[in-house]
Design goal:
There is one protein chain. This protein has 258 residues and is mainly alpha-helical. The protein has one domain. The protein contains 9 helices and 2 strands. It has a two-stranded antiparallel ribbon with strand order 1-2. Helix 3 runs antiparallel to helix 4, helix 6 packs across helix 7 and helix 6 crosses helix 8. The longest helix has 50 residues. The two termini are 33 Å apart.
Length: 258
C-alpha cells in the first residue's frame, strides 16, 4: 500500500519562521521594553520636577517644608506606579502580538499543506475558525503527540494570558487561576485576601523572564514540527475536520456531475 506525505515542513521555511519570531522579540525589547529599564530614576526626576516650580510658592512663615516634600514624594510614587503599569501593559501587548502571529502562521501552514492534496474551501475555513484545543486535536490525530511536550504547556499558558488580557473576566481567567496562577500577580505576598480566588484580570502580569519562556516555547514548537507527516501516521481525525473534508468532497463530486 502506497504512502504519501500530507504535511511537510521545508527546512528553509522552518528557519525563516524562527528567524522572524526572534527578530520580533529582539526589536520589541530594543524599541519598546527598553524604554522602561530605569523607571526608578525617572520617578526620582518626577519628584525634582515637582519641587522646582513648587519652591517658588514656598513661604517659610506659612508653609511646613515637610508638607512640600511629602507632596513631591506622592507625585513621584504616582509617576512610578503609572509608568510601571504602562510597562506591564506594553509587555502584555508584545506577548499578545507574538502569540497571535505564531497562531496565524501555524494555521496558514496547515491550510497550505492541506491544499496540496485536498480541494475545497470548507476545510480551510474550519482550520482558520477552530479554537486552540481543536487545532491541538488535529495535530495529535496526524501523529504528532504535541500535548506531552513542555513547549505546548507554555503555549497553552500564553494563550490563556492573551485571552485574559484581551477579554478580562471569563473562562480563560478561571482556567488561568486553576492552571497557571503565577501570571496573576500577588502584590500582598499571600497576606489577607490575596489568594488567587480573589484576583481578577486586573492582576494579570507577565515578567520579562516569563516573556522569554513564551518566546522559547514558540521556537521549540517550530523546531519540533515533523519534517514529514505521512498518511499512514494519521489516526481518526477530529469530527469537525472530517466533516469539513467530506463536505468539500461531496460538493466537488456534485459539481463534476453537473
Amino acid at each position: 500500500m502506497s504512502d504519501y506525505v500530507l504535511f511537510q515542513m521545508w527546512g528553509p521555511f522552518r528557519q525563516s519562521l524562527i528567524a522572524g519570531h526572534l527578530f520580533y522579540v529582539e526589536q520589541a525589547r530594543k524599541r519598546l521594553l527598553s524604554q522602561f529599564e530605569d523607571i526608578e530614576a525617572e520617578a526620582d526626576k518626577a519628584v525634582e520636577d515637582w519641587l522646582q516650580p513648587s519652591s517658588e510658592r514656598f513661604d517659610p512663615d506659612r508653609h511646613d517644608p515637610g508638607d512640600f516634600y511629602e507632596a513631591a514624594n506622592d507625585a513621584g510614587i504616582e509617576f512610578y506606579t503609572l509608568l510601571s503599569d504602562m510597562r506591564d501593559q506594553t509587555r502584555l501587548s508584545v506577548v499578545a502580538g507574538m502569540f497571535h502571529e505564531w497562531d496565524k502562521q501555524l494555521r496558514d501552514w496547515l491550510v497550505r499543506e492541506i491544499q496540496h492534496w485536498h480541494h475545497g474551501d470548507t476545510a480551510a475555513l474550519k482550520v482558520w475558525s477552530a479554537d486552540f484545543v481543536q487545532i491541538a486535536d488535529l495535530l495529535e490525530s496526524i501523529g504528532w503527540p504535541i500535548r506531552s511536550a513542555d513547549y505546548f504547556q507554555m503555549l497553552d499558558a500564553c494563550r490563556l494570558v492573551v485571552n485574559v488580557y484581551k477579554h478580562g473576566k471569563g473562562k480563560s481567567l478561571e482556567d488561568l487561576k486553576q492552571k497557571h496562577p503565577e501570571y496573576l500577580d500577588d502584590p500582598l505576598g499571600g497576606a489577607g485576601f490575596s489568594g488567587v480566588e480573589y484576583r481578577d484580570h486586573t492582576y494579570l502580569k507577565v515578567s520579562d523572564e516569563q516573556f522569554q519562556v513564551f518566546s522559547d516555547a514558540i521556537v521549540a514548537f517550530w523546531q519540533a514540527v515533523p519534517e514529514n507527516i505521512f498518511k499512514s501516521k494519521v489516526n481518526d481525525v477530529p469530527d469537525w475536520f472530517g466533516k469539513a473534508i467530506l463536505k468539500d468532497r461531496t460538493g466537488h463530486k456534485q459539481a463534476s456531475e453537473q
